[in-house]
Structure prediction request, 167 residues.
Amino acid sequence: MMKTHLTGEELGGYNIIKAPISELTKQAVQDLDLEVKTALKSKNMFALGVVLYLFNRKLDKVFKAFEEKFKSNPVVVEANKRVLQAGFNFAETVEAINPTFNVEPAELDKGLYRNITGNTATAWGFIAASENSRPGTLSGILSHHSCLRNPAGTHQTQRTWRKSLSG
Prediction:
C-alpha cells in the first residue's frame, strides 16, 4: 500500500493547507473544563466550519441543529458551536484559502424524501443483496447472528425489516 505525503510532487498543483485542528479545537473549548479526549471529539466540527466557509454557508442552521440534537447536554452544544466557529474563522483568516464557492440550493420536486445514515444504507444494501442472491441467505445470516434472534423467529424479523424498508 502506497503512503501519500502532503509534500509529494503529485500534489504540486493543489493548495495544501495544514491546519492545526487539534490545537485550535482545544483552544476553542479551553474554558469549558472538558477533558482533552472529550474536547477532541468535536474536532470534526472544525473541518465542517472550514467547509461552510468555502461554500459561503451560514453557521446558524448548524447551530440550531446542535441545539436540537444535544439539548440535554448544553456543554456539548457550546463546544460544538465554538469549534465550528473556530474552523470558520480559521478559513476566513488564513490567506491561503481563496476563492470560495457558491452552490445554489437544489430545486427538488415536492414529495416525501427520506434521510438515512450511512449505517442504515449499508444495512439495507446487505438485505437487498441477500434477498437477491441465494434463497435462504438472509434467514441463514439472521439465525446465526445472536443479537438478531427473537422469540418470534427469523421469519418475523425478515417481515419487520421488509416493513421498515417500505416505509
In short: The radius of gyration is 22 Å. The helical segments are 21-28, 36-40, 43-54, 60-69, 74-93, 118-131, 137-144, 154-165.
